[in-house]
């Protein structure tokens, strides 16, 4: 799972490509993704689930770049989308619509119609009102919508509160206690094939126990529904597997997790759907940045770099930790500094009080594990053009999204 980013002769490489060369030619800030790392992470699921009916749907919200989606589609991935925009992206990338699942708490009628038109695998419905709307739209279009109800299994994901979703108080899903009655009511709706149950309890879980606990509760729900004559054919257990952002973080025990969920699906004779996002894309990407200035004041040292919260908001939003590595190792030792960007917000930091290589203006650094929830959350705040994205494959690399220009910033505006 590791190994896509390594030093060779003091220079940080992505696969066979020297990242300093990418930074110099593509400019910074710049996201770089490793094709090998993306494929390897996806294949891990395929290998562990081989022989069991399954569909691994990459969560597009983690990284929606067309080249990344195309690469995963070619590897056999399905996709989990949460908007009509993401549907547009996956179709454009060449995804098989029959491998697309549509999640999200607020689907609009237009988005539902577009997905019905495309013929997606299924809708993960989050309320009775949504089931009613889906039923009527499908009927009007002369289609049958395959659907699952997103259930809230009430398992504490023990992750950051902003990315925990599986408790009763969260806006997501239907309370598992009330789910059976809703299934009974919705099973009779015309235009609807209510064939699945889904859940997603949160993100960045390094301990797989809550994921397995949720899977067991979902399995028990499938059995209770069967006893009531409602036979489900698939179980979608969402995403949530974490990645080690810190050197000392463990990898989640994916082997144990996949063996457990596979066992539950096989026992129930249902197709298993999973929706990993971060686990596939996170470790496969880095954000390259250049040091602009050094500044010290009141006992604090600042490294002012050209990447900011507009490229990577996770530190500002979740106080997330990302390791930082120099693109070229120096002989200058380390320093403790805040690594900050140019944006006019005090929360615009990439790291606080971090021991980091003693970098000087002009030096490059890589913000590690930035392939998920990185570029997709980039903004144009402070009228900053969004960065370019690069895909490395073996010894070659190419720009898969060009850096925005100033004209891009005002496109569609009228003075
Ligand atoms: C965000 C999300 C995912 C992906 O979560 P990761 O933690 O990135 O694996 C999967 N399914 C749903 C419904 C989501 O909202």
Describe the structure.
The chain is an alpha/beta fold and 415 residues long. The chain has two domains: 5-33 and 282-409, Beta Barrel (Lyase, Ornithine Decarboxylase, Chain A, domain 1), CATH 2.40.37; 104-274, TIM Barrel, CATH 3.20.20. It has helices spanning 19-26, 35-49, 66-75, 84-92, 109-118, 128-140, 176-186, 209-227, 254-268, 278-281, 314-318, 406-410, and strands spanning 5-8, 11-14, 17-18, 30-34, 54-59, 78-81, 100-102, 122-125, 145-152, 174-175, 192-198, 234-236, 271-274, 285-297, 300-305, 324-326, 334-340, 349-357, 364-367, 388-393, 396-401. Strands 4, 14, 15, 16, 17, 18, 19, 20 and 21 form a nine-stranded mixed beta sheet that branches. An eight-stranded parallel beta barrel has the order 5-6-7-8-9-11-12-13, surrounded by seven helices. The protein has a three-stranded antiparallel beta sheet with strand order 1-2-3. Strand 8 (122-125), helix 6 (128-140) and strand 9 form a beta-alpha-beta unit. Helix 2 (35-49) packs parallel to helix 3 (66-75). It is elongated, with a radius of gyration of 22 Å. The relative contact order is 0.16. The structure holds pyridoxal-5'-phosphate (PLP).
């Amino acid at each position: 799972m590791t190994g896509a980013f390594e030093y060779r002769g003091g220079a940080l490489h992505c696969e066979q490509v020297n990242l300093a060369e990418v930074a110099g030619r593509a400019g910074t800030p710049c996201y770089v993704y490793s094709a090998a790392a993306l494929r390897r992470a996806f294949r891990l699921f395929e290998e562990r689930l081989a022989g069991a009916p399954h569909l691994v749907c990459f969560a597009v919200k983690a990284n929606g770049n067309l080249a990344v989606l195309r690469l995963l589609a070619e590897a056999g991935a399905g996709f989990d989308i949460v908007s009509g925009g993401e549907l547009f992206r996956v179709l454009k990338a060449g995804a098989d619509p029959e491998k697309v699942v549509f999640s999200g708490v607020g689907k609009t009628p237009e988005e539902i119609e577009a997905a019905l038109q495309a013929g997606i695998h299924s809708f993960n419905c989050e309320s009775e009102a949504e089931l009613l709307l889906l039923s009527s739209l499908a009927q009007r279009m002369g289609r049958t919508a395959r659907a699952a109800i997103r259930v809230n299994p009430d398992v504490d994901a023990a992750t950051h509160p902003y990315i925990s979703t599986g408790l009763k108080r969260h806006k997501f899903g239907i309370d598992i206690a009330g789910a059976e009655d809703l299934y009974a009511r919705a099973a009779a709706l015309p235009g609807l094939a209510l064939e699945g149950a889904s859940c997603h309890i949160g993100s960045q879980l390094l301990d797989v126990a809550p994921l397995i606990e949720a899977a067991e509760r979902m399995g028990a729900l499938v059995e209770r529904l069967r006893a009531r004559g409602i036979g489900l054919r698939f179980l979608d257990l969402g995403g949530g597997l974490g990645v080690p952002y810190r050197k000392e973080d463990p990898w989640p025990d994916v082997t144990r997790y996949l063996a457990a969920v596979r066992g539950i699906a096989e026992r129930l004779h249902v197709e298993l759907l999973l929706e990993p996002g971060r686990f596939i894309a996170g470790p496969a990407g880095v954000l390259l940045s250049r040091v602009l200035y050094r500044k010290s004041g009141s006992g604090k040292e600042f490294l002012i770099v050209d990447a900011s919260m507009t490229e990577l908001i996770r530190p500002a939003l979740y106080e997330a930790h990302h390791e930082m590595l120099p693109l070229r190792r120096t002989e200058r030792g380390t320093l403790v500094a805040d690594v900050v960007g140019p944006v006019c917000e005090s929360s615009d930091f990439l790291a606080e009080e971090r021991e980091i290589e003693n970098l000087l203006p002009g030096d490059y650094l890589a913000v590690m594990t930035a392939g998920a929830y990185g570029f997709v959350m980039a903004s144009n705040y402070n009228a900053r053009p969004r960065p370019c994205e690069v895909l490395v494959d073996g010894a070659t690399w190419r720009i898969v999204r060009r850096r925005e220009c100033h004209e891009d910033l005002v496109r569609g505006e009228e003075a």
